[in-house]
Amino acid sequence: MKRTFCALAVLAAGLFSVVSANQDLLTLQKDDNQWAIPAKNYSATRYSTLKQITAANVTKLRQVWSFSTGALRGHEGQPLVVGTTMYVHSAYPNHVYAIDMTKEGWPIKWKYTPVQNDRAVAVACCDLVHKGVNYAQGRIYMTTLDGQVIALDANTGKEVWKVRNADPTRGETQTMAGLIVKDKYIVGVSGGEFGIRGWVAAYNLADGKQAWKAYSMGPDSDVKLAPDFNQANPHYGRFDQGTKTWPGERWKNGGGSTWGWYAYDPTLNLLYYSTGNPGTWNPSVRQGDDKWSMTIFARDPDTGMAKWGYQMTPWDAWDYDGINEHLLLDLTIGGKPMKTLAHFDRNGFAYLLDRTNGTLLSAEKFAPNTNWADHIDLKTGRPVETPGKRTKQGVETKDICPAAMGGKNQQPASFSPSTNYIYAGINNLCMNYEGVEVQYIAGAPYVGANVRIFAGPGGNQGEFIAWDPVTAKRVWGIKEPFPVWTGALTTAGDVAFYGTMDGWFKAVNAKTGAPLWKSKLPSGSIANPITFLGPDRKQYIAIYSGIGGWFGLPIAGNLSREDPLAALGAVGAAYGSGLDKVTSVGGTLHVYALE
Amino acid sequence: MNTTLKAWAAAFAVAYAASLATVSTQSAAPAAAGSLRVCGDPDNLPYSNDRLQGFENRIAAVIAADLGVEASYTWWPHQRGLVKNTLDAGTCDVLFGVPHDLETILATRPYYSSSYVIAHVRGKHAVTSLDAPELKSLRIGVYANTPVEESLARRGLLDKLTAYSLFFDPAGDRDRPTKLLDDLVAGKVDVAMPWGPLAGYYAKKLNAPIEMSALPDETGVPLSFSMGMGVKKGNRDLKNRLEAAIEHRQKEIRAVLDEFGVPLAAAKQAAVGAIQVPPEAPAPAPGAKAGAQAGAPGDANKKNPFTDNADAVEVGKKLYIQVGCQGCHGGGGGGGMATSLIDDAWKFGSDDETLFKLIKGQIPEQTMPTVYSSLPDEQVWQILAFIRTLYIGDPTKKNW
What we know:
- The complex is a heterodimer of chains A (595) and B (400).
- Chain A has 595 residues and is mostly beta strands.
- Chain A has a single domain, classed as Quinoprotein alcohol dehydrogenase-like superfamily (Methanol Dehydrogenase, Chain A).
- In chain A, a hairpin with a 5-residue loop joins strand 9 and strand 10 (159-164).
């Protein structure tokens, strides 16, 4: 009897903390004065109801504060604003600063730099980027390039706990922000170019203990498939696919890294994320679907069990690394209200799914010139490939669009409920691709392809577009000379913000796409703009500059221009576009307000 | 100061000062008549401090006495920029406690060898080997970027690790380098794996209740190192006099090491005479062999037997892709995740032996993955032969 009582008491205490952690973040993300989680809210819309700044007055926007992060590699991600404190992060070595916005000049409350194994630097695929930190209940939660997961006291910057999630000596690194759901911090892993077997793992906020870990491929018990997995769509594949769709034991080095953005639906209690490219880019050695690489997963965040999984690019032959973000949108489709998930994939298609069960609603080309597949068969969920565009070992397959960098890279889109459009920076890049034989050696690169990347038809390498998710059609587009690798921000002022690799931060009319304002940054931007209300009740807009990422690596890493295959094809693409003539390295946070 | 750190610091210093490599050997400042000018670390016990309390201060005094002079000091932290700002700048003439095979300086034969150790508090967690099964349930403290991290990674123990910083940060943002052993004594970690002399000092000089066992070298992961004194490249006269003094004063040096509790290891086989000969040196170092010596570890001046051999270049090109080099260094060698191989910027040196060692994972401070240690020597040379064909840098800088 006594034992039962104790067990119940423990259970009750556990439930209480679950509820309160959840409640804290749910409340914070609804407050548009703050920007408390990386994507603004669990639905990942990057939309704010603030409207001091509008399409009518945005021309009066001026930089009012700036701050050097102390790092000069590519700056992805965004700061957080919680209360009157801003939490700023940097590229490797992953500095974190707490900025006190109540004092003149916004001084530094504390600074934290993790002790890291510098061998991680040599195995980080595509620049030493980081997508930002998380906040919950008085703590900052972060990942480090070298595989640590760390909790800090948000008031002092002191370490509360740290644990290891990934091992850089095996090519595993971390660049993702992760997401806090209830009492857990959910993180993933990078390293799809090193033959890792990807996973997501949940760590208890209280003590850093691992609560669950779910692999991207392997036996169902490792992938953590619920008994009703894909019940609604059995043709997506249900059980034993994580091993049987691979030749032999190739799933053991199957890739499927999880370095992108995560979203969460509190009502359905489902976590959404997707997995990356299968291990070795050479498709000839892994004939089969290679499940569950390139897959959008919906998991129960309490247990890690997967409710559904939809593979976008079976037997990938192009490095269409499927990790891009998911926007959880409640839309009216055919007169019927639906809980949907919108995803702009690297493979050039914009997918809309029923997020309750994974049913595919539409899949249309958002990237101009996408030619590897004709269309996605909505019945089977599978792409209908174009003959002659599937790559193989020993042959240079030419003029494939999009390039491996994708129709769109990781930079997250925004959805405005005011216009009902999705806004996204996209690429117009094509490639030649040749699979080459590579042996798996633990901790050594396992790329297995030579890639040449160049501008697609039209010559411009990028575009910023508005997309109607209901009609699955583009509304307007603004051509940019370089790929657009900043995230988008939309506000109730009907302004859409984005930045460019040549260092412009721009505001456009969210309805029409008409350019309204721009400001020159000291370095190109690949980061995500945010907005918040300062202690002075003024609306601010913030964005990092700092060129880098895969495309910008030739600049960030100071690579010479002679080898177009270098940096997995980025040297040819970046120098081919003249990126070195328009920007240089940086690492600065810029804050704007109306003058 | 830990061996690895020193090697690291010195190697980086020289990378920055690469242009100084062509300075004439005759320009080294002559030692002042009345003193042995030591480049000392002002605050780095148990090795050295500006109150002369470290064992290297004591050994410097012994050596100076043998030379019939006194030791005088230029203080410079033994971190990044060390060689450039001390030996190369001519402000002092000798560094104590440098890895005997450090190529950025001219090193004497070793005067002691030690190893990384596994240390525990007396009576608790008495683990003496990295393969002890109980390690799986213990909290392990190590210094970040030291070779023991690699050994633990190979055993899947990384999640047990707490990494400490070796760097003393005057701004106070980071912990003092001694925190690892403080935490061991305080029970915050169960076992610690520091460089032996640091643990020995704690046990012997500070009477901390800790016990330790030496860690043996592992394939591809050296855990013991031999330490010599370093002089500026070309200063062979001082090197010879220091080596004579080491010979004369063996007993006294040993007594100082014992007093500080330095756990001694066997000297590395290749220690004596295995010094990289600077190109401008008038005579080869004792023991150095000329010509191709592919495959014999420890040989000085290894040369690639396959340079410009068309067949080997062809094989090397295939291997470059097959074993994965291409993934980080680029399809045409232009770099990416890793540095470019086609220009004349080389982090650790451009000579055959340095690049051979890098691929083999034998340079303690390298960041390149140390996963190719079992690649046959012949294949390493074939890959290097291919890499040499990619070079488009300044032709006068070719030293292969």
